[in-house]
UniProtKB/TrEMBL annotation:
The keyword Cytoplasm applies. This is Pyrroline-5-carboxylate reductase. SUPFAM superfamilies: 6-phosphogluconate dehydrogenase C-terminal domain-like, NAD(P)-binding Rossmann-fold domains. The lineage of its organism: Bacteria, Pseudomonadati, Planctomycetota, Planctomycetia, Pirellulales. Catalyzes the reduction of 1-pyrroline-5-carboxylate (PCA) to L-proline. Pfam families: F420_oxidored, P5CR_dimer. It catalyses: L-proline + NADP(+) = (S)-1-pyrroline-5-carboxylate + NADPH + 2 H(+); L-proline + NAD(+) = (S)-1-pyrroline-5-carboxylate + NADH + 2 H(+). GO terms for molecular function: pyrroline-5-carboxylate reductase activity. GO terms for cellular component: cytoplasm. Belongs to the pyrroline-5-carboxylate reductase family. Keywords: Amino-acid biosynthesis, Cytoplasm, NADP, Oxidoreductase, Proline biosynthesis. Its EC number is 1.5.1.2.
Length: 270
């Protein structure tokens, strides 16, 4: 039904980040947003994070007459959540799944024939309009559905369309990526504390350094190695730090990190 109603199945971290980002960016009116979750604490957190939104225990109540239904439960619970939603889904409903690893084919198989499914891999910075997402249209999703998903995701960050076979790789890189970067920020902060900085000053300097460096890559379009060379004076401080970083194997650790998370996403889809 073209009601504008947007229903999340699962009112957890990512549903809250996406719904909150959509309200902030005026892509959705909070009163049109519904979420179902069996956990009363999750419902409470969702409603207090998004004033005006409705969180309920029953999926059937959340999804009835929804224009868009977002599957936002852990992959292990996708089957049961889709079974609860299926009776309220018809050819007028757009179903968006953000569940890591879960394939469009298995989502469609749990829904009535012809269901319009789009698989998305977002990340938590969608909450503040800085998300990085990729999406893939299922066989019955229309080009209008593609535009709608691109517009929603574009309002909460950047989004690209990719073939479904690459979505596990996206999960391993940008879906899980914020956690890697938080770890880097925390470690840089500890480094700052080790050399005498107060912790709050070290944390602010570390976080803004990461944000500034990322913005340089995005805004200048220069290769990271070129930008790094500009920082690195001959015989200076940076090369002393970089030599230690290479000895610690940060580069190969991060490559292996993305590969391990991609493998896990593939496993979740089996
Ligand atoms: N957290 C993240 O950074 C990202 C998560 N995702 C995907 O988003 C999905 C949700 O992840 P999170 O929000 O982190 O998990 P979460 O655990 O915070 O939220 C999931 C919620 O679903 C609820 N739930 C469980 N079974 C249900 C059912 N049958 N019906 C309705 N609700 C049910 C749980 O009570 C929980 O509150 C996962 O599939 C994950 O792969 C995707 C991108 C990033
Ligand atoms: O850790 C997870 O499984 C989810 C998917 C991407 C980010 N968080």
């Amino acid at each position: 039904m073209a009601s504008g109603k947007l229903a999340f199945i699962g009112a957890g971290q990512m549903a809250t980040a996406l719904a909150g980002g959509m309200v902030r960016s005026k892509q959705a009116d909070a009163r049109q947003i519904w979420a179902s979750d069996p956990d009363p604490k999750a419902r409470e957190r969702f409603e207090s994070a998004i004033p005006g939104a409705n969180a309920v225990a029953e999926t059937a109540q959340a999804v009835i007459d929804a224009e868009t239904v977002v599957l936002a439960v852990k992959p292990q619970y996708a089957g049961e959540a889709l079974a609860d939603a299926a009776p309220a889904i018809d050819a007028l409903t757009l179903v968006v799944s953000i569940a890591a690893g879960v394939k469009i084919g298995s989502i469609a198989a749990a829904l009535p024939d012809g269901a319009r499914v789009v698989r998305v891999m977002p990340n938590t910075p969608c909450l503040i309009g800085q998300g990085a997402s990729a999406y893939c249209l299922g066989p019955h999703a229309t080009s209008e559905d593609g535009r709608r998903v691109a517009k929603i995701l574009g309002a909460v960050g950047m989004a690209i369309e990719l073939p479904e076979r690459l979505l596990d790789a996206v999960t391993g890189l940008s879906g899980s990526g914020p956690a890697y970067v938080y770890t880097v920020i925390e470690a840089l902060t500890d480094g700052g504390v080790l050399v005498g900085l107060p912790r709050d000053a070290a944390l602010r300097l570390a976080a803004h350094t990461v944000a500034g460096a990322a913005a340089m890559v995005i805004e200048t379009g220069q290769h990271p190695a070129q930008l790094r060379d500009v920082v690195t004076s001959p015989g200076g401080t940076t090369i002393a730090g970089l030599a230690e970083l290479e000895r610690g194997g940060l580069r190969s650790t991060l490559i292996d990190t993305v590969a391990a998370a991609t493998d896990r996403s593939q496993e979740l889809g089996r």
